[in-house]
């Protein structure tokens, strides 16, 4: 008798159980930030009060100004943040997923923001919450467009490192054409074309000649930076009239724009911001609710299987990257048709790389990537707000704040995520 039939003549099934991997990334990040909050509360405390202005003068309902005692608010929030960090560890230790839920990190981030604003704004001018949020949305707009372009490209299997070049060339083209035609619409169309041209170069080298996509993207960023700097020096500097474009007017949505806090933040913007709202929805709907989106995701996950059922892999990738470039080009137009009226050398300041980080932080999902872009834009706007109220926080720290937030978010809060399986891999039949 064999060993297989020794137990009632039955062969015991072989069960392969996947080992549970517990991720401590989020709890460790929360531990570090909770420790920083305790330092604010007990090691470097500040006394007095902090004033928060909750409404703008044009709001339909005027909310009262909030005045918080610094010592009590910071101590209470530091204790709550410490408790949330402990709760995060408990979730990791006891939950079936082995990970801390995202809501813990979100609540933690919001509470720490209130703590930091209260501590930094002690005995200074009122912190304008609507202005803080409006400025954050403005700075986040090109990041959101760039992140949508990144999601589209990578869902199709093409790593779009050239987002910064698409934003910069879009801003340059919008300024040039908008100034020459005195038309903001013409400038916007030129920015779209500029983004498409950069995307086509990326697509040709990546899909036709199988060049490493990351290298092509980096080279394109350097190339666009050099070209725009050259034309700025040779064209814009001696001809200032060619670098002063017509901006889009601000459009206030009747009724909605008077809602306290929400109204100024969401419904008093130019057409580019409203296009951003629609673009986020359209990219999500197209990727996950249409046959085209299914094809795009299939060529990014398993191009061989897509080719087997008759999908032209490289053609699908090419046109998806084209659309991604057009979307990023609109984000570039924001710099010169909304934020400013002229083009400046390297005015994107590496926004394309932050947008690429938003793609990763958003786990290659358009809505989550857009929310990540809003987070990074808000972090970038804090430096301007603190400078306005005269905060003692060193300016060097404020300048590096958006990049620190980007690193912490991507390295510590992303958790386990997976890019499309064929991302960055050329398809060779």
Textual characterization of the structure:
The chain is 65% helix and 3% strand. By secondary structure, the chain is mainly alpha-helical. It has a 3-stranded mixed β-sheet. Strands 4-5 form a two-stranded antiparallel sheet. The radius of gyration is 25 Å and the shape is globular. Mean pLDDT is 87; it is low at 1-18.
**Total helical elements:** 15
Overall spatial form: globular
- What is the H-and-E element order? HEEHHEHHHHEHEHHHHHHH
The poorly predicted ranges are 1-18
Instruction: Please give the share of residues in helix.
Output: 55-70%
> Radius of gyration, rounded?
25 Å
Q: Report, as a whole number of angstroms, the end-to-end distance.
A: 52 Å
Q: Count the beta strands.
A: 5
What is the arithmetic mean of pLDDT? 87
> What is the beta-strand fraction?
under 5%
Query: How do the strands line up in the largest sheet?
Result: 2-1-3
Structural class: mainly alpha
Largest sheet: 3 strands, mixed
């Amino acid at each position: 008798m064999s060993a297989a039939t020794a137990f009632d003549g039955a062969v015991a099934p072989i069960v392969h159980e996947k080992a549970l991997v517990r991720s401590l990334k989020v709890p460790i990040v929360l531990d570090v930030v909770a420790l920083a909050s305790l330092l604010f509360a007990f090691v470097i405390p500040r006394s007095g009060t902090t004033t928060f202005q909750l409404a703008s003068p044009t709001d339909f309902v005027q909310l009262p100004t909030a005045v918080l005692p610094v010592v009590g608010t910071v101590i209470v929030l530091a204790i709550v943040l410490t408790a949330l960090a402990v709760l995060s560890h408990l979730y990791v230790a006891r939950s079936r997923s082995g990970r801390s839920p995202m809501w813990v990190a979100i609540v933690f981030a919001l509470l720490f923001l209130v703590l930091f604003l209260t501590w930094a704004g002690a005995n200074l001018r009122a912190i304008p919450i609507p202005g803080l949020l409006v400025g954050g949305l403005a700075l986040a707009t090109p990041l959101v467009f760039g992140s949508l372009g990144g999601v589209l490209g990578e869902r199709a299997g093409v790593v779009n490192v050239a987002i910064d070049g698409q934003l910069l060339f879009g801003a340059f083209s919008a300024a040039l054409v908008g100034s020459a035609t005195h038309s903001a619409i013409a400038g916007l169309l030129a920015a779209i074309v500029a983004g498409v041209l950069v995307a086509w170069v990326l697509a040709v080298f990546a899909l036709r000649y199988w060049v490493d996509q990351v290298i092509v993207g980096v080279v394109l960023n350097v190339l666009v930076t050099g070209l725009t700097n050259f034309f700025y020096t040779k064209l814009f500097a001696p001809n200032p009239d060619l670098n002063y474009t017509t901006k889009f007017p601000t459009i206030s949505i009747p009724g909605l724009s008077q809602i306290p806090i929400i109204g100024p933040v969401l419904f008093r913007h130019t057409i580019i911001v409203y296009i951003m709202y629609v673009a986020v929805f359209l990219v999500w709907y197209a990727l996950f609710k249409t046959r085209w989106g299914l094809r795009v995701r299939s060529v990014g996950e398993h191009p061989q299987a897509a080719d087997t059922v008759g999908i032209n892999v490289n053609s699908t990738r090419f046109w998806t990257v084209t659309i991604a470039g057009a979307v990023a080009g609109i984000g570039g137009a924001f710099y010169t048709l909304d934020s400013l009226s002229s083009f400046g050398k390297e005015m994107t300041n590496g926004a394309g790389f932050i947008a690429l980080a938003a793609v990763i932080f958003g786990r290659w999902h358009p809505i989550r990537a857009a929310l990540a872009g809003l987070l990074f834009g808000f972090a970038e706007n804090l430096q301007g707000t603190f400078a306005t109220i005269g905060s003692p926080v060193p300016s060097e720290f404020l300048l590096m704040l958006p990049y620190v937030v980007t690193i912490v978010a991507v390295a510590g809060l992303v958790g386990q995520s997976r890019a499309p399986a064929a991302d960055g891999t050329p398809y060779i039949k």
